[in-house]
Write a structure and sequence with these properties.
The longest helix has about 50 residues, at about 25-70. The chain has a domain at about 40-105: F1F0 ATP synthase subunit C (F1FO ATP Synthase). It is mainly alpha-helical. Helix 2 packs antiparallel against helix 3 (about 75-105). The chain has helices at about 1-20, 25-70, 75-105.
Amino acid sequence: MKKMFVTLATMLVSVSAFAQEEAGAAVDVVAANADRGLVAIAAAIAIALSVFAGAMAQGKTASTALEGIARNPAASGKLLIPMILGLALIESLVIYALIIALRLA
């Protein structure tokens, strides 16, 4: 059992020793990773804001259309198609934001 622990400890220590890089390259890698991290955060914020705004817009659109149908049930045919078209356009803007965020990250 003692040999197994010694072997395991040796393997764990040797991995970190072989993983070291030279100092100049490590600084460049850290700077590149920091930029990628900021881009990923920007993409996440962009998709979060677009999804929130899209959800609010879709809720307002559906609420207004259903209120109009409730006031005048005869106008449901005239309100249904524009409502669905508006919902599709709102959702397309959210999908565009998703595509841009995925391209950034």
